[in-house]
Design brief:
With 233 residues, the chain is an alpha+beta fold. The protein is 16% helix and 34% strand. The strands form 2 sheets. Strands 3, 4, 5, 6, 9, 10 and 11 form a 7-stranded mixed β-sheet that branches. A hairpin with a 2-residue loop joins strand 3 and strand 4.
């Protein structure tokens, strides 16, 4: 499960790492406590005049499927890779609307006898890319002439935890390697179960490099958002 994550780099650093062609002007993606329903940075690839364009957009974290008459009361911020091609809420998006969510790291709560300790999980350097899916949802309650009727929404794919993370939580985000990022973002084909299986295996390879340490329980409150949240305690 992934319910909180961190972006500690500005657009320039993200653009360099992920070879972006376009990003919102003046947008700062930095947050030390991204939570579901918030606007998060999301990378997609489109074909423009026959050439690929890798772009960063802001999206609501919590996918809203095309058939939904309203925003679900419980945000669909995670999608299980094992069933994403079967679940009605995710299938349509999973087949063709693939994205990546850049992250400096993420938080997970490790259960012990009577308490839960938050941990910050991160790569030794650089950033992570979570595999995700997205959808443009049209609000049927708004007029066709209202530009705000369209909402960009997304979910993070999760899988059974890699062996080195299993003592923390039973699931972790699906992590894209540098080699798989381009293939996952490519809009040229429909998602297959074979692709998802290969992605899950490669995710475990990426996960082997991750580091983690305990952090303050303050991360549990969405209103808290500062670099101190990722400091070791």
């Amino acid at each position: 499960m992934c319910g909180r994550f961190v972006v500690a780099k500005e657009i320039g650093g993200i653009s360099e790492l992920f070879e972006l062609d376009e990003a919102p002007a003046g947008y700062s993606p930095i947050s030390y406590n991204y939570a579901p329903t918030q606007q998060i940075p999301m990378i997609v690839e489109r074909e423009i005049d026959g050439l690929p364009s890798r772009e960063l957009h802001k999206a609501r974290w919590g996918l809203v499927p095309s058939w939904s008459k309203g925003i679900p009361p419980t945000p669909l911020f995670n999608a299980r890779i094992e069933t994403v091609l079967e679940k009605p809420s995710f299938k349509e998006a999973a087949l063709a609307k693939r994205c990546a969510i850049p992250a400096s790291g993420y938080f997970e709560w490790q259960s012990s006898d009577s308490s839960k300790q938050p941990l910050y999980i991160h790569p030794p350097e650089g950033m992570l890319a979570f595999a995700g899916i997205y959808w443009w949802w049209r609000d049927p309650s708004k007029l066709q002439s209202d530009p705000s009727r369209w909402m960009l929404t997304c979910s993070v794919l999760t899988k059974q935890s890699a062996s080195n993370l299993s003592q923390i939580h039973e699931r972790n985000p699906v992590l894209l390697s540098n080699d798989n990022l381009g293939a996952w973002l490519s809009p040229d084909y429909a998602t297959s179960s074979e692709l998802l299986e290969a992605l899950a295996e490669e995710s475990d390879v990426v996960a082997r490099e991750l580091e983690f340490h305990p952090v303050s329980a303050a991360v549990g409150q969405v209103v808290n958002n500062s670099p101190s949240l990722i400091e070791r305690i």
